[in-house]
Amino acid sequence: MVDAEGTTGGLTPALRFAVLGPVRARYGDRPLPTGSPQQRALLAVLLLRKGRAATAQDLVNALWGEESPQQALAALRTYASRLRKSFGVRQSVLVSEYGGYALRLSPEDELDLDAATRLTAAADKCAASGDLARAHELYGQALELWDGEALGGVPGPEAELQRARLAEQRLGIVEQRLDVGLQAGFHAESVSELTALTTTHPLRERLRELLMLALYRSGRQAEALAVYADARRLLIDELGVEPRAELSDLQQRILNADATLNAAAPATPTVPVLVRPAQLPAAVPDFTGRAAFVAELGAQLATAGGQVMAVSAVAGIGGVGKTTLAVQVAHAARDQFPDGQLYVDLQGAGATPADPQTVLGAFLRALGTPDSSIPDGIAERAALYRSLLDGRRMLTLLDNARDAAQVRHLLPGTPSCATLITSRMRMVDLAGAHLVDLDVMSPEEALTLFTRIVGHERVSAEREASMDVVAACGFLPLAIRIAASRLAARRTWTVSVLARKLSDERRRLDELQAGDQAVKATFELGYGQLEPAQARAFRLLGLAAGPDISLHAAALLDRDVEEAEELLEGLVDTSLLESAAPGRYRFHDLVRLFARACAERDEQPPAERTAAVTRLLDFYLSTASAVYALERPGDATVEHMHKPDRPGLRFDGVRPALDWLFGEADCLLASARQARGTGEHARQIADLLMMARDLAESGAYSQQFVRAAEAVLEATDRLDQPLAQARIRVALTHAHSTAGRSEEAEEHAKHAMLLGVAAGDQVAMSHGLNERGISAFYQDRFHDSRDYLEQALEAFRQQENRSGEASALSNLSRVQLVLGAPDKAVDLAEQALALYRALGSKLRLANGRYALGVALAGHGRGDAAREEFSAALSSFQEARQRLWVGMTYFRLAGLHLDAGAIGQAATLAEQALAELREVGGARREADALVLLGRALDSAGQSGRARVCWEAALATYEALGRPEVEGVRNLLSAATV
Fold first, then answer.
1. Does the structure show a pLDDT above 90 at 623?
2. What is the DSSP string of 104-173?
3. pLDDT digits (tens, 9 = 90+) for 722-731
4. C-alpha distance from residue 751 to each of 725, 736, 760, 765, 782 (Å)
5. What is the largest CA-CA distance in the chain?
6. DSSP string for residues in 330-379
7. In terms of Cα–Cα distance, which of 259, 267, 471, 502 is closest to 364?
8. What is the pTM of this model?
9. pLDDT for position 646
10. Distance (Å, rounded) from C-alpha 917 to C-alpha 807?
């Protein structure tokens, strides 16, 4: 039975009290009245005495001090009586003792300060035991208990004293959390917070130490040294003292590039760090033979921990079982590598081997490094990777490598680690590697493997036929598995039936040779046994580019989803196709090449292959158009795209639509590049790139988008396809403009307009004008920009393209602001926002609010501008638009700086810099550095400000920007 208080079984709810913010009391889930400020002061004093009694005079002094009112004692008793009554059935906790009072809570009752103390103690324990990630998390939980200023709104001298004590306690926990965070490698994430803290607490030397260390570990040595210079100058000016020894020692260690300062390993601050990756693929249950190789490689791995790192490279022809052997050996050695195992398929046999830089990024994430802490360059990533593995016992399996050059950056640098490599190439140029040449199986091993798959009974009955089968397979493990699996799935076949099939030389090569030809012969066995519909599916799938293909993208088969799934699952059963994930399939690299060769040989006439690629591009274009339309309602551009014969996917909302676009980005862009050659698909590809322009804005796929578009443009430039060329150039203009490459954007926009006129393409002309106006703006040609944008506005209106109209209005608003017409700028931005609001696009509405924020800020209406920027920020974050996230941080930082909120301005400027370094281009990064420098200079950190300005000046000079003079003035005026 549930009682009136929401408890069961007659249990009394606990009392819960809060002092780390406004003083509050709750009985179970029900808030209790705490009365007047003086009554809350009494409650706070009693809570902080931890059950100890306080005399009436002590309480009077605590509430009023030495100048207490004449009726203070009577008022005190009234407050105590009211408090007691507010506790209801638990009023006995407030007791009268020796003429005073005490609050005696039960063990089930709770005070938030006690919870914070327990969490801090637990965090201290974790930190002492080396569990830094957990310690960081627990310190964070303790800090989350603070809800503003402790004892908020509580009067009295005791409250003032306790408030100061609790503020110091909180700041101490903050320092502890930041300290363990730096030990755990959270230096990049800590910079902005420490910047704000040193601004708020400029004389707190421990915060300066932590900031110096965070900056140094983020590769910002000059700024780290500038922090020391700022701190020393301030301490001397304000207190007349030199920095304490710890701060001075850290400065000297930074000057000396002390290697121990780099000892921390990055980790993820918000979730438990994946300290033990276990990425090995599953070992096959029927692994057969290879005993000598297993022993040899196992012995080599056992040397890990000696003087040099153990590296073994297994070489052999495709299908010989390199991966199977390496995975088996790696699993057997797992106990020797308790810190985990990393695995990657380097796709070395394919046309596009895995980029070592990309692989390093994946490895760093698996080791707990947040994306924001992963550096850009391959050398920097490799260095961080080696640092993370230093002192650990980790096994890395680099599968299917192209050559030694591909794996060199992926090798750990510590003797306690080991690496297994598989490759078709014999890596004689990989220094120090133990080379193993893997040959085909012996006849006995091959027959044993065949028996384990087919079954002992069937093989025993036809042993001679079974030997004929494995001999026809060339004793190649992959060929044996394909043949045996086919036989095992057909219970009506005898082994002799399979042997007769394999004896037909028209279905396999007379002689197995090293290299691709031998692999092709092995694959020919499985391909030749496929049913006609399966064989056609196999061939056509080979025409698809990208790392894998979705079930829906299998539209190139010209079958419905259910039929396509049945065909693909049948191919999975023969091991010619892999199930990468539910609804996604992939070829082994060499099988993909074989399938494509089969398509070129067997899919006749060639128009059949062209039609299949057309169906695939139609699917991508139709689906990408659906994403575009959801994101940009009212944008008539979609109506001018190529109309696919087949529908694509449809989505319930923008989020799943964007999930599809970003999840399919690799395959979509790869298909665009691959299909560019002959011109049949130029229009489809151009429109596909137009519809997928969000990929250019995201940061994650910006470079891939540009590379794909440039490859397509190079191919179409050789053809008489002005419409396709114009639209590809529009897409490239947008990508380059997003990345801050205004000159390249201008060039493409100019050609897009000319080609659009030649083709009579309204889309290219209107978008080209809009993009050219943007490029001119960033080149400081503001009158040209206005002219282009006004023409774009008229063009969009003629097309009834409301989204394009709103975009042009937003851009015009920016131009009018720069040209000295703030009223007109606000009016244009409000028109744009009204259009976006009417269209119902959340992301584009954010673009409108951003434009209005810029105009309002230029109009001197800072509070209204902040409101617009804050509303836009969450939408940009949700849509993964890193450029606009960074620009919004930048704008907010400027407004906070103008309002005198120095610490918040510095924090926002740091966040802007972190984003714009990735996606915004050199100029936007320099702009953020200038703003950060201004905030730091206002905070008294002129040394670090100078470092920021010097970096910005170098960028502006390299770009030939007019901002050079302004930054030089800042540097001249700065106090050193």
1. yes
2. ---TT-EEHHHHHHHHHHHHHHHHHHT-HHHHHHHHHHHHHT--SSTTBT--SHHHHHHHHHHHHHHHHH
3. 999 999 999 9
4. 9, 14, 14, 10, 20
5. 115
6. HHHTGGG-TT-EEEEE--TTSSSPPPHHHHHHHHHHHTT--GGG--SSHH
7. 267
8. 0.61
9. 80
10. 25
Q: Is the peptide bond before 605 cis (omega within 30 degrees of 0)?
A: yes
Task: Provide the 8-state DSSP code for 302.
Answer: T
Write out the H or E segment, with its range, that includes residue 26: strand 24-27
The amino acid sitting at 863 is D
Other beta carbons less than 10 A from residue 101's beta carbon: 25
Alpha-carbon gap, residue 405 to 355, rounded angstroms: 11
Output DSSP code: residue 8: B
Contacts of 412 (CB under 8 A, 6+ apart): 309, 385, 386, 389, 394, 396, 419
Give dist(CA 262, CA 145) in Å, integer.
33
| Interatomic CA distance for residues 412 and 419, integer angstroms | 8
CA 909 – CA 888 distance, rounded (Å): 10
Q: From the centroid of its chain, how far is CA 770?
A: 31
Nearest by Cα to 226 from 964, 914, 906, 940: 940
* pLDDT score for 508: 43
DSSP 409: G
Where is average pLDDT lowest: 3-12, 631-640, 899-908?
3-12
- What span, in angstroms and rounded, lies between the C-alpha atoms of 132 and 714? 52
Measured distance CA(413)–CA(309) in Å, rounded: 7
CB 220 within 8 A of CB 913: no
Question: What's the pLDDT band for 270 if we cut at 50, 70, 90?
Answer: very low
What is the predicted pLDDT for the residue at 404?
85
Question: Does the pLDDT value for residue 862 go beyond 80?
Answer: yes
pLDDT at 11: 57
Identify the band that residue 272 occupies on the pLDDT scale cut at 50, 70 and 90: very low
The span from the CA of 701 to the CA of 693, in Å, is: 10
The closest alpha carbon to 630, from 653, 601, 602, 607, belongs to: 653
Residue 156, both tokens: 């009295």
pLDDT in tens, 435-480: 888 877 889 999 999 999 889 989 999 999 999 888 877 787 877 8
DSSP 700: S
Q: What is the 3-state secondary structure (H, E, C) of 912-956?
A: HHHHHHHHCHHHHHHHHHHHHHHHHHHCCCHHHHHHHHHHHHHHH
The mean pLDDT value for 121-144 works out to 88
List the 434-437 sheet strands across, edge first.
341-345, 395-401, 418-423, 310-315, 434-437
Closest CA to 220 of 918, 925, 932, 944: 944
Residue 314 CA from chain centroid, whole number: 34
Q: Which of 583, 755, 597 is nearest to 682 (CA)?
A: 755
Residue 540 contacts residue 557 (beta carbons within 8 Å): yes
Contacts 24+ apart (CB under 8 A), 33-38: 33/86, 34/83, 34/86, 35/79, 35/82, 35/83, 35/86, 36/79, 37/153, 37/154, 37/155, 38/63, 38/75, 38/79, 38/155, 38/156
Which of 185-194, 652-661, 667-676 is the most confident on average? 652-661
Whole-angstrom distance between the N-terminal and C-terminal Cα of the chain?
Answer: 74
Max mean pLDDT range (124-133, 374-383, 665-674): 665-674
Distance of alpha carbon 229 from alpha carbon 604, whole angstroms: 75
Cβ-based neighbour number of residue 955 at 10 Å = 21
The amino acid that residue 440 corresponds to is V
List, in order, residues 6 or more apart from 217 with CB less than 8 Å away.
182, 185, 187, 188, 261, 262, 264
DSSP conformation class of 429:
T
- Considering Cα of 925, then 927, then 930, then 936, what sign does the dihedral take? negative
Residue 628: closest CA among 693, 684, 673:
693
Average model confidence (pLDDT) across the chain? 85
Least confident of 131-135, 400-404, 473-477: 473-477
